[in-house]
Design a protein that fits this description.
The complex is a heterodimer. Chain A folds into 3 domains: 184 residues, Rossmann fold (3-Layer(aba) Sandwich); 155 residues, TPP-binding domain (Rossmann fold, 3-Layer(aba) Sandwich); 173 residues, Rossmann fold (3-Layer(aba) Sandwich). Chain A has 24 helices and 20 strands. In chain A, the strands form 4 sheets. In chain A, strands 3-2-4-5-7-6 form a 6-stranded parallel beta sheet, with helices on both faces. In chain A, helix 4 packs across helix 19, helix 12 runs parallel beside helix 15 and helix 17 crosses helix 24. The longest helix of chain A has 23 residues. Chain A is globular and about 70 Å long. Chain A starts with a helix and ends in a 23-residue tail after the last strand. Chain B is α+β, with helices and mostly antiparallel strands. Chain B folds into 2 domains: 102 residues, ACT domain (Alpha-Beta Plaits), CATH 3.30.70; 67 residues, Alpha-Beta Plaits (2-Layer Sandwich). Chain B is 37% helix and 36% strand. In chain B, the strands form 2 sheets. In chain B, strands 5, 6, 7, 8 and 9 form a 5-stranded antiparallel beta sheet that branches. In chain B, strand 2 and strand 3 form a beta hairpin. In chain B, 23% of the residues are buried. The chains are: A alpha/beta, B alpha+beta. Chains A and B meet through strand 6 of A and helix 1, helix 2 and helix 6 of B.
């Protein structure tokens, strides 16, 4: 069918305006749901959107940042490219946080911004800003279109670059005259760009060397990241883990690639990860990193990180090899292919004694931390017990969208994931305000799935206006605010490292339930443990959106914790 | 150990690419000592020549980040020993000095500088060579008064082959193969 369209477009062209062409380009790329906010310089495009609203749905967010996070949530839940649209000037600059977030978390996104007429460029015109200059360091690629006839080719390239290889955000800035201008429209999908190799070729030698090291290992450990999800390599990864019998730990963006309950899953690595995988990172003999980038929140002090281990790095982006941790063996390429190719070279093993070490350390963590988090005996409610109740009601099938802070760490540590693409969070950039709009995007992308946003009282207020989208569209997002009336994570650091000087972290909050009322969202506030079960049940049973506020213990801390600059094996349990 | 490296970046001709490349150095707080942009030996392929003083570990990471940019075809780094390099400088000096100061004529002769133009008011000297040679000439001319001085960034060629042409041929070959496939 694709070739038919190609043949057709090669021979037939239609005269149309740049903005109409833009609509057709989006549809040709399968983008039929986009997020944005109109304004002067993008009005010709919005006029076309109005005409084509039966085919291309536009969701009006209440701030351009919300449009980017919604597009990100959509992309993360579906694996498709998310699209966000804004006008020039402040509209465009408001996209930057979401773009930076998508860049560091490798999320495929295309942002389209209007720009002042090309004759005004550089003249400090009304709502003119150099968005190409501003977005350069945070985009995978960006381009300014000044002539209508450039639109099809540039849009094709934009989608191709955003989704191929290591995905990322692309920004296309289109002057108003290019939107009004006419062109002979014909669309051809982009299949390659001369200067861009999206996926390096797998070297057989590297695969063989990696297999040899894995087979010879006595205490091997896997750390996998989002690369497994982005490469859609869940099956290949599961096969690899099961055949090799190697304990597998995840980074915050890697979770849900295999079910949480999988017996070979040993938990999260990093600052607030699990005790076992962090401690044993410094004891394993072979460390197999798959689709992860050794972020400083994962490695702690690099000088003491896995120095005893032979490091094998499976990675699609050559720039990540040796960037933070020197790899002894680098297997470049797409994880789906490299894992499939290495599988026959791997010996079937079980590493029982080595697994026992993870279990022993888990037991220590359970007794000191987990037990009290999920089954507290103290009066105050914990974040952990809320998550556990959500798991029970969702049966592990929900998409859990978290914001940034304590609730994020607790949420991801205790959430039960049965399906892939179920964890959506701002990992690399740590963008407070991410969760609410991202959850809206995720729900629209995966309408058949339950989407639960877990947010702190701080982050919630950063993008709270996006409740307007729920009001207008009826997106059935479940919102859980874990309210400790503090910027909890910063407060925790102040307690531990700044002698309890709580500078600007206590929050006087509005009545969140009244706000939910104002947006016609059913809601409930829980202050006592005995009401929690029923409230969570009610929320999850609702076919509509629901707002649940849980007043949790004000000064609880997240443990385990690797203090900044410490070694992963110096992780603290209290 | 820090060293002087000449970075050669082969790129598509794209507005804004220089911005992307310089941002990579800026993020890591690395000062660009010189930069020049020009055509390359391959048609429609442009070249940036950038000189920086960094460690080899740093330069390897930087090359990775540069090559990750969509419009960069390939980037290489070389030490001074591996390259033939030169800079070019111009000196504008009052014409009367050329006749009054015998020493100036000696400097021109000894430094292998070239007189680009002479008119009633001033004459212009052009000198190509290593940084030290240009610096020496500058020091020698300074006492007589230099009206204007300017020096270009380093340009360089490598002693060994730059595998860019073969690489591009491979890409073009792939292009043709892909085209043949798509037209089937």
């Amino acid at each position: 069918m694709e070739t038919e369209t190609l043949k057709k477009t090669k021979t037939e062209t239609t005269t149309m305006s740049g903005s109409e062409a833009l609509v057709h380009c989006l549809l040709a790329e399968g983008a039929d749901l986009i997020y944005g906010y109109p304004g002067g310089a993008i009005m010709p495009f919005y006029d076309e959107l109005h005409k084509h609203q039966d085919k291309l749905r536009h969701v009006l967010t209440r701030h351009e940042q919300g449009a980017t996070h919604a597009a990100q949530g959509f992309a993360r839940a579906t694996g498709k490219v998310g699209v966000a649209v804004a006008t020039s000037g402040p509209g465009a600059t408001n996209l930057i946080t979401g773009i930076a977030d998508a860049q560091i978390d490798s999320t495929p996104m295309v942002c389209i911004t209007g720009q002042v007429g090309s004759h005004l460029l550089g003249s400090d015109a009304f709502q003119e800003t150099d968005i190409i200059g501003i977005s350069t360091p945070v985009t995978k690629w960006n381009y300014q279109i000044t002539r209508a006839e450039e639109i099809p080719e540039v849009l094709a390239k934009a989608f191709y670059i955003a989704r191929s290889g290591r995905p990322g955000p692309v920004l296309i800035d289109i002057t108003k005259d290019a939107q009004f201008g006419e062109l002979e429209y014909a669309y051809q999908k982009c299949t390659q760009v001369r200067s861009y190799t999206h996926t390096p070729q797998i070297e057989q030698e590297a695969l063989e060397a990696a297999a040899k090291a894995i087979n010879a290992a006595k205490k091997p450990m896997i750390v996998w990241g989002q690369g497994v999800l982005l490469g859609e390599a869940e099956t290949e990864f599961k096969d690899f883990v099961e055949k090799s019998g190697i304990p597998a730990a995840w980074t915050i963006l890697g979770v849900s690639a295999i079910p949480t309950e999988h017996p070979l899953n040993v938990g999260m690595v990093g600052m607030h990860g699990n005790y076992g995988p962090n401690v044993l990172t410094n004891e394993c003999d072979v460390l197999i990193a798959i689709g992860m980038r050794f972020d400083d929140r994962v490695t702690g002090n690099l000088e003491t990180y896995a120095k005893q281990a032979k490091v094998i790095h499976f990675e699609i982006d050559p720039a990540e090899i040796h960037k933070n941790v020197t790899a002894d063996i680098a297997v470049l390429g797409n994880s789906k292919e490299s894992l499939a190719q290495i599988l026959p070279l791997i010996e079937k093993k079980s590493h029982e004694a080595w697994h026992q070490k993870f279990k022993d350390l888990y037991q220590i963590e359970f007794d000191k931390v987990i037990k009290n988090d999920i089954n507290p005996t103290k009066e105050g409610l914990t974040m952990g017990e809320v998550i556990v109740r959500i798991n029970k009601q969702s049966n592990g099938d929900a998409i859990i969208v978290t914001d940034v802070g304590q609730h994020q760490m607790i949420g991801i540590r205790y959430a039960d994931f049965k399906q892939s693409k179920s964890n959506i969070t701002s990992g690399g950039l740590g963008t407070m305000g991410f969760a609410l709009p991202a959850a809206i995007g995720a729900k629209m992308g995966a309408p058949d799935r339950e989407v639960v946003a877990i947010i702190g009282d701080g982050g919630y207020q950063m993008t709270i206006q996006e409740l307007g989208v729920i009001l207008q569209t009826g997106a059935a997002v479940k919102i859980v605010v874990l309210n400790n009336e503090f910027l909890g994570m910063v407060r925790q650091w102040q307690q531990l490292f700044f002698d309890k000087r709580y500078a600007s972290t206590d929050m006087q909050n509005p009545d969140f339930c009244k706000i939910a009322d104002a947006y016609s969202i059913e809601n409930q506030r829980v202050t006592a443990r005995e009401d929690l079960d029923e409230a969570v049940q009610k929320m999850m049973a609702s076919p509509n959106s629901f707002f649940l506020e849980v007043m949790v213990e004000k000064e609880d801390n997240v443990f385990p914790m690797i203090p900044t600059g410490a070694s992963v094996s110096d992780i603290r349990l209290e | 150990m820090k060293k002087t490296y000449t970075v050669s970046i082969y790129t598509e001709n794209n507005i804004g690419l220089l911005n992307r490349i310089s941002a990579i150095f800026q993020r890591r707080h690395i000062n660009i000592e010189s930069l020049s942009a020009s055509d390359s030996e391959v048609d429609d392929v442009f070249k940036f020549t950038i000189v920086v003083n960094v460690t080899e570990t740093q330069i390897k990471k930087i090359i990775g980040q540069i090559e990750r940019q969509i419009e960069v075809i390939k980037a290489f780094y070389h030490t001074d020993e591996e390259t033939i390099f030169t800079e070019s400088a111009m000196f504008k000096i009052k014409s009367e000095l050329l006749f009054e100061e015998r020493q100036i004529q000696n400097i021109i002769k000894e430094s292998n500088a070239r007189i680009v133009t002479v008119n009633k008011e001033f004459f212009v000297l052009e000198k190509s060579g290593r940084r030290a040679e240009i610096a020496l000439m500058y020091r020698e001319l300074k006492p007589f008064g230099i009206m204007q001085f300017t020096r270009s960034g380093r340009i360089a060629v490598t002693k060994t082959e730059m595998p860019i042409t073969t690489l591009l041929k491979q890409i073009e070959h792939k292009d043709e193969a892909a085209f043949a496939k798509s037209s089937l």
